[in-house]
């Protein structure tokens, strides 16, 4: 073997696509291609018969591509015997396809020693399949270092399997040479590295380099890369491009992409097309899509269809299916079935199912059975379960234990838990900590927290500075902003307080608006203050209506006002009745005045 010519390179990759079966009738272009191929084969055959080694190698490769192993073998053997290394490699491929792996390896070795990178790659893979990793690494490295793309990828895969740090280098080499799987795996490795540097935060953005490799792999038709690229773009708010990549991936058969595309369409208001893609994904075994379909049908009131899809999700291994079945049964009042499904999901580690199960047991009076499930859910990270444990301990009078759970839930952003911690700190006299937690709760939308925060700030507010002419100057303070926020959220005491602040400014219309809103929502103080405002404006009959409402709700001063109104009108018996009511309602100062009025009215009536 003086010269091993690198003649035929068609099969150097070692990957073959068998020709698809052709129809009896073909297009003119296909006919032309077949004619050209037949002419080329005839030319190579004539040259091979005349002893041309290169023609033997090329003809063997052509026949091998067609799947004609019997026809290809003699030509490849003849070319190999004449020293053609590409023929030796392809002979190894042929023998490997026939099932003679060891003989194939012998020919690959000959070709690899002669410098065939494809043969070195094939030989490396042969040794890896046999479990001989040192030999596999040797030959794969030979192939990779000589520029063979598949060799670089196979070497990277081997090194990654062993946990060798050099894997990324070779994965990068293969990716740079256009290997799409290498580009995808390199992107995943960069993603994992970024997640590790941020303690595994699921919300971490993919590094820019990872995105570039995802994009390269996706552009070459890698469906999982297209899925990941879509996810990155969706996170970034580039929904239109994200949808295009999800669609590309979904059309290539990636169920998760079809599911993600469904959610994207749903968020855009297109539930009909969302359902189409969820159905496609669910039929391919995607549990998340099956759950989404279940939720869609549940919203439409189609509970039987919803239940069928939730069961499909569960069968696909998605524990959310059991949890959603529990929710569905609970909504229908099927408590035993709801408990069964919650338990199934909870035992599988679903923390919200454990919390829901505990609530179900607690409502049924089984506090002993509920507490362990609350604890399990809370320890697994359920913020609601931590808050519920706080309520459970508070109900028993175990304030310190309750506070610990409230603090845990508050630290995770639970609004009501932050409110409870803030109120506890207020009771302890720790205004600074109270303010911090109340701000968190108020920022989360709690009207009670906004009101209590306003009262804390109000207590610290210095007196209004005097105007030069002795009139107070009103400057809008932060506490007023919080009172107004709570009032706008329907908090009755805040509404009364905002009304009082408006009245102090002389804004009677604004004050009346807030008093009326509070009174109509059931605030007796709001009704009383509205009555005062109306009386000052000369509308005593209407004022009496609101005082009556306040007094009926237990407001002593409102009852005293009514007693005075009826006394002035000369309706002494009615005045006496309201004075009696004021005495019983109090407070002490009101009761004392009402008692004197009652006695005077009694004397008047008996005179």
Task: Provide a descriptive summary of the structure in words.
The protein is an all-alpha fold and 607 residues long. 76% of the residues lie in helices and 0% in strands. The protein is built from 34 helices and no strands. The chain has helices at 28-49, 53-66, 69-81, 85-98, 101-113, 117-129, 133-145, 149-161, 167-176, 180-197, 208-219, 223-235, 239-251, 255-267, 271-283, 287-299, 303-315, 320-331, 335-347, 351-363, 367-379, 383-395, 399-411, 415-428, 431-443, 447-460, 478-488, 492-504, 508-520, 524-536, 540-552, 556-569, 572-585, 588-606. The termini are far apart. Residues 1-28 have low confidence and may be disordered.
- Low-confidence stretches are 1-28
- Beta-strand fraction estimate: under 5%
Class from secondary-structure proportions = mainly alpha
| Multimeric state | single chain
Distance between the termini: 144 Å
Number of helices: 34
Radius of gyration: 41 Å
How would you characterize the largest beta sheet? none
The dominant shape is elongated
The average pLDDT is 88
Helix content range of the residues, please?
Answer: over 70%
User: What's the β-strand tally?
Assistant: 0
């Amino acid at each position: 073997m003086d010269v091993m010519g690198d003649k035929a390179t068609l099969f150097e990759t070692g990957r073959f696509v068998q020709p698809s079966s052709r129809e009896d009738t073909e297009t003119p272009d296909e006919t032309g291609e077949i004619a050209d191929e037949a002419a080329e084969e005839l030319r190579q055959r004539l040259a091979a018969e005349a002893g041309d080694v290169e023609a033997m190698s090329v003809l063997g490769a052509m026949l091998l591509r067609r799947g004609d192993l019997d026809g290809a073998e003699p030509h490849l053997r003849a070319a190999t015997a004449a020293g053609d290394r590409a023929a030796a490699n392809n002979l190894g491929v042929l023998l490997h396809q026939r099932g003679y792996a060891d003989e194939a390896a012998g020919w690959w070795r000959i070709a690899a020693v002669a410098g065939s990178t494809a043969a070195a790659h094939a030989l490396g893979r042969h040794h890896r399949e046999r479990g001989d990793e040192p030999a596999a690494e040797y030959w794969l490295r030979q192939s990779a270092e000589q520029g063979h793309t598949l060799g670089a990828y196979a070497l990277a895969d081997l090194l990654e399997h062993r946990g060798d740090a050099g894997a990324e280098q070779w994965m990068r080499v293969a990716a740079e040479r256009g290997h799409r799987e290498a580009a995808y795996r390199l992107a995943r490795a960069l993603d994992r590295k970024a997640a590790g540097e941020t303690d595994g935060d699921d919300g971490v953005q993919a590094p820019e380099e990872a995105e570039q490799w995802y994009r390269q792999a996706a552009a070459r038709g890698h469906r999982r890369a297209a899925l990941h690229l879509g996810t990155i773009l969706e996170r970034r708010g580039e929904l239109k491009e994200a949808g295009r990549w999800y669609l590309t991936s979904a059309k290539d058969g990636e169920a998760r992409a079809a599911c993600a595309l469904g959610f994207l369409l749903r968020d855009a208001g297109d539930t009909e097309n969302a359902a189409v893609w969820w159905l496609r994904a669910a039929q391919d075994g995607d549990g998340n899509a099956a759950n989404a379909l279940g939720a869609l049908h549940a919203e439409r009131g189609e509970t039987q269809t919803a239940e069928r899809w939730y069961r499909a999700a569960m069968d696909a291994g998605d524990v959310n299916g059991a949890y959603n079945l529990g929710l569905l049964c609970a909504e229908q009042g099927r408590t035993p079935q709801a408990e069964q499904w919650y338990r199934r999901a909870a035992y599988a580690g679903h923390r919200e199912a454990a919390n829901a199960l505990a609530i179900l047991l607690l409502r049924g009076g089984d506090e002993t059975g509920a507490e362990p499930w609350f604890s399990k859910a809370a320890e697994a990270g359920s913020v609601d379960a931590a808050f519920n444990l706080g309520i459970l301990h508070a109900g028993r009078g175990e304030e310190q234990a309750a506070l610990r759970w409230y603090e845990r839930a508050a630290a995770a952003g639970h609004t009501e838990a932050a409110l409870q911690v803030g109120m506890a700190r207020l009771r302890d006299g720790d205004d600074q900590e109270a303010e911090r937690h109340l701000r968190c709760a108020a920022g989360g939308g709690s009207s009670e927290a906004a009101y209590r925060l306003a009262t804390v700030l109000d207590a610290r507010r210095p007196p209004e500075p005097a105007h030069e002419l002795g009139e107070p100057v009103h400057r809008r303070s932060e506490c007023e902003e919080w009172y107004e926020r709570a009032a706008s959220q329907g908090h009755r005491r805040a509404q009364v307080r905002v009304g009082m602040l408006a009245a102090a400014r002389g804004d009677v219309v604004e004050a009346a608006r807030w008093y009326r809103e509070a009174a109509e929502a059931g605030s007796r103080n709001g009704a009383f203050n509205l009555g005062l405002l109306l009386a000052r404006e000369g509308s005593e009959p209407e004022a009496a209506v609101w005082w009556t409402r306040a007094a009926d709700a237990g407001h002593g001063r409102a009852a005293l006002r009514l007693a005075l109104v009826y006394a002035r009108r000369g309706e002494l018996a009615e005045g006496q009745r309201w004075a009696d009511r004021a005495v019983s309602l109090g407070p002490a100062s009101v009761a004392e005045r009402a008692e004197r009025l009652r006695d005077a009215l009694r004397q008047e009536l008996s005179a």
